[in-house]
Fold each of these.
Amino acid sequence: MIMLDYIMLVLSILLLVIAFLAVSEKSLIKSVIFLSALSMLSVVAFVVMKAPDVALTEAVIGSGLVTALFVFTLLSIKKEESK
Amino acid sequence: MKKLLAFVLTIGLGLLIIFALDANTTFDDFGFANLAERVSTRYITKGSNVDIIFGQTLEPESGPANIVTSIVVDYRSFDTLGEVTVLFISALGVALLLGSAGAQKRMELNFKPNFMLRVGSRALFGIIIMTGVYVTLHGHLTPGGGFPGGAMIASAMLLLYLADDEFRARIKGFKILESIAGSLYVIIGLLGLVVATYFLQNFLPNGTVGDLLSSGIVPIIYILIGLKVGSEISGMIDNFLTEEEAQ
Amino acid sequence: MIQYAAILLMMIGLYGLLTNRNVIKIVISLNVLEIGLNIFIISIGFVYDGIAPILTSVNNSSALLFVDPLPQALVLTAIVIGVGTTALGLAIVKSIYQKYKTLEIDEVEEI
């Protein structure tokens, strides 16, 4: 129980720091990368709280698909800007 | 001024939530949840007085060994039907906003992929599809099920889109597959109403807890959900990466 | 502990939703809010020394101490709906840029 509490403390601090960076960063691509890292940390939180179904679903969806959709939107905006 | 007001509002709301949950005596402390007072004991013991043993119990109330699967597909299957509907509506919205009536081609970007990347990604494509199909089929025995399995199949299509510059999947086939899978889910539910007592009842036999061929219609529904989610997200990715053909 | 962190995460996402002017940052803040909410819902069902709610050949009896499976089923639905919402939001962002050529929400007229 002591080890679990230490893991949760470190995890909580990391989650809060990365979430604040994701919301307040000026550059858009850095913000998207911080969101992807936040999603991966939440997968660690789900595994520590003994929820394997949720961890698997969030790992596949958060890392691959949502980040890819954000990057495709940013690419098409940059392309229209330079036209 | 707006930032200060938003800051005060969010801090106030956060403190209100924390104090309300602390003052509530029925909200258990973290880690000391008493499962005997919750409805989850019915889901864990599957409504019987004897213990459910993996590999031995015959014909329990709900078949899957994965208790979360038995909640999502058997006990609360109507909520899953609602979720499938919400996903269908969002895919429909994306197709309406980003599609166009005329012909479409791949969006032209500045970088061209390598020849080795284009060929080598086809080998990885087979492995990812196989993992997705495995996770979907074993949804009632291991963690996973239809939703991560379908997302893995969509990730395999995303790999092909990223590695090849000219690739475009057959979107018409995906749309037909998605519609058939969604309608089959409702038709199986109506079959439960006709053959047995209520909508979405598990009318096939349940078998032994822990076998691959067990738990009635649960693997069938997870296969349908996996196909539907996979083809929907692949369609969304295709809509994001194509643009109107210049006249 | 992790429940305080989850509530603070929701409040950070809400603050980002209220004060950002770029529409893509608004969609990102919505995602942060949803991640915080999912962590909080799962933390309601945690039991110390509980095991994952799956019957296997090692944990083969239903009389063992399990973690609550009901919040996990709810969060499974919520994650997939979050993906649908994000995709639709990004499609709207792309259409806004095609029509108004700007991403700041102050310069977009005629809602």
Note: Chain A has a mean pLDDT of 93.
Amino acid sequence: MKSFIISAALIFLPILSGCATPPREYYAVSGDKGAMTVTSRDAGKPGKTTLDAANPVVMHDGDQPRAGDISAEQLRSRMTQALAAQPLPPKRFTLYFIEGSDILTTESKAVVTSIFDEIKQRPDPDLIVVGHTDRVGSIADNDQLSIKRANTVRQQLIKLGIDAENIQASGRGERSPLVPTADEVAEPRNRRVEIMVR
Amino acid sequence: MKHFKHPLAVLAVGALTGSATPALAEQAVLFQPWAAGIKVSNGPVQIVHGEKTYNGRVGAKLRVNDLVITGENGSVGLVFLDNSTLTMGPDSEVELKRYNYDPTTYMGAFDVFVKKGTVALQPGDLAESGPDNVSVTTPKAELKGNAKQLLISVGDAK
């Protein structure tokens, strides 16, 4: 009899408290990598917990942030419309340059056609143009050269009719080599501009 | 239409091989006119920019301090300059509180406030340079870190 009362209480308690408490919040992460720290903003009831693969759902109902009472799958099924609005992933293209210059290699000229084909596939295309260098020269000089390469491509894409507002150009210098090398090594595969059509 | 492609390609190649580079284009700090663009939009979606409210259709841009609001059966998908994506389900409201992005170093700050509804966030380059760069606040909590995908539900999830 005692256990029946407890069971009944467990069944009705969430319903009763659901009416009384403000809306619940749920947070979830997916994947094995990465973690978030969840900190309560209620100064009267400070609390903190970690959201990660071991604790993939956290809820906050006004008390303390703590392990959620639903699974990540259940949360996903409650937010199918948000998840379905995921934009197409960016399509990446790479153009290569002649050493120390902003002039494209012959092979890369053909890639430009593919870029325009991809632009036509997208409802609202915008482009991110990122210049890269190899490790010959100083970091500052390579930053400048990578921006110069990206801007050259950007200016030409604008001339070809793409709205200037929809092309962002930047340079990563020697920070993101395609092929890692020691400093001062000339590596043609790292002298490139990456274009993301989004 | 097929024939159109070829002249375009020739033009592109000719233009790209031109060695004259406008000196004005070389600037260390690049102009970023917006923070994110709407790529997917279904049902009622609005952007509130100061006193003005815009239709949140595909192609609309989001700037710092703007609100994105979805109505009944509305949903929206945004892509940020650093390739972060943020999607929202129905009856949701999000404010872009801060967005600074240095595309050279990937340093910066990305703060959003999820007032209500359902939101999925996939942080981009900004999360790579430091776990504290990306911050999501809700009415009850602040979340910081380097998760690859974060799901948020504030209130009754739909």
Note: The first strand of chain A starts at residue 25 and ends at 30.
